[in-house]
Amino acid sequence: MDFTLNDDQKMILELVDEVSEKEFAPRADEVSAKGEFPAENIKKLAELDLFGITIPEEYGGLGMDYLTWTLVSERISRACTTTGLIFGTNLLCTYPLLQFGNEEQKKKYLPPLAKGETLGAFALTEPEAGSDAGNVQTTAIKEKDSYVLDGTKIFITNGEVAGTYIIIANMDRARGPRGLTAFIVEKGNPGFTFGQHFDKMGLSALPNVELIFDNCRIPSENLLHKEKRGFRVAMRTFAAGRIGVGIGALGVAEAAFEKAKEYSKERVQFGRSISSFQAIQHILADMATGIETAKYLLYRGAWLLDQNKPFEKISSMGKLYASEVAMKVATKAVQVFGGYGYTKDYPVERYMREAKLFEIIEGTSEIQRGVIANFILKE
Amino acid sequence: MRIIVCIKQVPDTEELGKVKINPATNTLKREGVSSIINPFDENAIEEALRLREKKSGEVTALSMGPPQAEEALRKTLAMGVDRAILLSDKAFAGADTLATSYVLAVAIKKIGEFDLILSGKQAIDGDTAQVGPGIAEWLNIPQLTYIRKLEVNDNKVRAERVLEDSFEVVETSLPCLVTVTKDINEPRYPSLRGLLKAKKEEIPIWGCHNLSVERKRVGADGSPTQVIKIFTPQPPGKGEIFSGEIFEVADRLIREIKKRKIV
After folding, report:
1. How far apart are CA B260 and CA B258, in angstroms?
2. A2 in a domain, yes or no?
3. Do A256 and A371 reside in the same domain of the chain?
């Protein structure tokens, strides 16, 4: 494994760094405080062609690898967690379309996603189904040339702002996971509406919405992959998505670490900068070590994905580790800032609230440990 | 519309502290300092791209400079200009604004037909604001300088020209030369597609051998300007700081104002 950047990657990251530092980072506090969807940032990402990185050229993208995507996502997330997650969530729509879509579906749905004209979302979670993915209650019934969906999805990231949705519904509830089926549903399809917007601890500008399907009829060509093979679609998508979520967590960790490091050098107590105290130095050393470890697990996951090698175990490890590192680093960053860290005058309290999400979404830390244990016990 | 944008590569403003003057030649020592497109020239590129988006046509970026100025031209390609040409020759070295505008004007004649020439109001390194107007004079076309708003309709150009504390509305006809201020627009970032495409593009280099220039008008020979000395001006004296209790300080201030007959 060689993570030396090639010239194209260097060129791209230089551009992403410039835009992230000039456009996203200065507005991140405001985005979070206002709780409004950062439409300007998303427009910028689209103008830069960043949504098309992993989409092949024949479908309007740039045909580059997931490692490049991961490096880009890390930089965006470091500057603005919300923007990074919106960017990352798009992958949960483009990845299954690329992996499981037929030619017509790819030609129809990928070009607008690659250009960022449309955002994507993925919906499995329901009030009774999340960690227990097989317990999806939303039903899909085949009627001649169409399927009829009924049910409710919750906590759907990019909900309402997205135009293209991958929906997991059940065609045979008695068979649990073996009844699950994936569909492509477009915003505006009759019978498909949006409900509650969830009011969260952090990331208030990140859309997390209820999706309501009420006698929602979609054409049969919108079946993704095969009937009752949706569990596989969901699990593959989550495995890839975990690299994206892990990298979002890494971004928060890096941002919190940088702020804590800077502050520790400026803050004077007992006549010296607090960075001269061993107690603070050890905190900073642990932060940096955790970040570095998480980084290479995630890069390795992306690299394995690019090599068409099994990546699922490593992506779970990366997501688990990076999200726990993010939570520890953000909590310790607040500690380094002391009383100021607990105020909204500094961004570290925001990082702490944001970091918590990563231990929950895309499979909780407990689910990740289960997934990893399954892999290692079979090896 | 056929638009030509003249740009200059300059030292990065964020690293200006690192720029040193070579005392022997009175020129900039650029080693170790990264370069950028002159920021006002980026506004000129943006304006050209917007005009092309509205009216179709072609945008050509032109720059005179050392071989490494190619990097700046490549960025204009990534931003979306159709082609870029570098004017570079050892004989061009040491050019002042007269010799620079001469070479640019000769190159523009070689390009052929054009409707509009755009450039930034001045370069942030030399700050002369003379090269744009110089080109217009060599080509004998109208020039509008310090423009913050530009409208082109058929053959007419209508523009807002920035003055000291106001602006004037001016009009002329095409072809003409326009220099722009930073208020005219917000330059775009290059896109990834643009970057990857620009990387592969050929940037032709024109020098004395393929430009019909008179040798005595280029480079140091064609430059009547002589830099005698470069120095940092002395700051105009230190201000006086009154400190102490607020009312006492206010009293001293009033006494001082009266004494110096400021009001």
Report:
1. 5
2. no
3. yes
A26 and A70 in a common domain: yes
Query: Which one of the listed residues A57, A362, A366, A379 is annotated catalytic?
Result: A362
What are the start-end ranges of the E strands in A17-125?
Answer: 120-123
Residue in A12, A41, A49 to test binding to B, most B beta-carbons within 10 Å: A49
Residue in A15, A44, A50 nearest the CB of B190: A15
Residue A80 included in any domain: yes
Interface of B with A (CB under 8 A): 188-196, 199
pLDDT digit string (tens) for B56-89?
999 999 999 999 999 999 999 999 999 999 999 9
Sequence-separated (6 or more) residues with CB below 8 Å from residue B33? B11, B12, B15, B18, B19
ipTM: 0.80
Greatest Cα-to-Cα distance within chain A, rounded to the nearest angstrom: 79
For the record, the structure tokens of A371 come out as: 């997934």
CA neighbor of A259 nearest in space, from A99, A28, A97: A28
Taking only the tens place, the pLDDT of each residue in B146-188 is 999 999 998 999 999 999 899 999 999 999 999 999 999 999 9
Please give the tally of structural domains in chain A.
3
A89 and A129 in a single domain? The answer is no
Q: What angle do CA A326, A329, A198 make, to 5 degrees?
A: 45
Contact A11 B199 (CB under 8 A): yes
Q: Are residues A219 and A301 in the same domain?
A: no
Among A77, A99, A119, the domain-final residue is A119
CA distances from A20 to A67, A74, A84, A89, B212 (A): 18, 10, 10, 18, 46
pLDDT at A263: 98
The band of B226, judged by pLDDT with boundaries at 50, 70 and 90, is confident
SS3 at position B160:
strand
Say how many Å lie between the first and final Cα of chain B, rounded: 56
Residue B108 and residue B80: Cα distance in Å, rounded? Answer: 20
- A101 three-class SS: coil
Query: Which CATH number goes with the domain that contains A369?
Result: 1.20.140.10
The answer to whether A362 is a known catalytic residue is: yes
- Is residue A11 located within the same domain as residue A45? yes
Using the 3D structure, point to which of A102, A119, A136 is the last residue of a domain. Answer: A119
In a domain, A1, yes or no: no
